[in-house]
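Narrative summary of target 7.
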Amino acid sequence: MKKSIIAVIVVFVFGAIVLFQYSSIYNEAVNNQETVDQSWNDVSAAYQRRADLVPQLFETVKGAAKNEKEILTAVTQARAGIVNAQTPEDMQMFGKKINTAINLAFEAYPQIRSTERFADLQAQLEGTENRINKARTDYNATIKIYNTHIRGFFTKMILNEEEFPKKEGFQASQGAEKAPEIKF
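Modeled conformation, tokenized:
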């Protein structure tokens, strides 16, 4: 009887160890799979940020440049009219046009800031692309951890391949190795 109790205890302990090991492997695989999914969601969020932000920034910069061009054109044309003025009344009329164009009581060219806006746009674009690249890199790192875990010798025997398939990392699209052509 003593031998049978020891045998039952040994079988029970062995079963508990196997069950604990199986649950540990399974839980780690689930955790890694969820981390991979979250990383891909982070990539998608970065893409969405770019899709939302870039067109708005570009339209803002384009509008500012157009506005500055109109102001500068109006001031230049008004000043050109002063040179061609024949009478003091013409001179006064063109002076009022200048003041209206630049909203000042004295004659001065407006400061052109669209170049600064384009620099700001460039910085925002660079920052957005850096965020996307970081999210892609993080995604590939989580893929590596996940795939390494599910492909382990004992893990592979325990886990169902349909429930825990091997994941593919982020791949660049065809032709991405070439620099894009920018047209203004």
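Helices lie at 2-83, 88-102, 114-150, 153-158.
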